[in-house]
Specification:
This protein is mostly helical and about 110 residues long. The protein contains 3 helices and no strands.
Length: about 110
């Protein structure tokens, strides 16, 4: 019996929660800006690309804001100078309930 390894997920087939990855959104946004700067598109096509660019910009900003928040949480300290730990939304409810107040999250 010949077993095949499933293909690695590609950007197009990878699951997407909130749109494209930050890198993919920035790449596409750069392409849109270059196209619009040429100035050779009909008005309707320019508007369509502009709308797409605005959406990509919003997705990118949302991802940046989320990353900044996570970094701030990781670097925060309490009044005694101890690292303040916060459970991220990716943990299960059970692990959050089992954790004592002030206890560090397991890694």
């Amino acid at each position: 019996m010949n077993r095949r390894t499933p293909p690695a997920p590609t950007e197009a087939s990878a699951p997407s929660l909130d749109g494209p990855s930050f890198e993919a959104a920035i790449k596409r946004l750069t392409e849109i800006v270059s196209t619009l700067e040429r100035g050779d598109l009909p008005l309707e096509e320019s508007l369509r690309l502009f709308e797409q660019g605005v959406q990509l910009s919003r997705v990118s900003q949302k991802r940046l804001d989320s990353a900044e928040k996570r970094v701030e949480e990781l670097l925060s300290v309490d009044d005694q100078g101890r690292a303040r730990t916060t459970t991220f939304a990716t943990t299960t409810e059970e692990s959050v309930e089992d954790q004592e107040p002030g206890e560090e999250a397991p890694f």
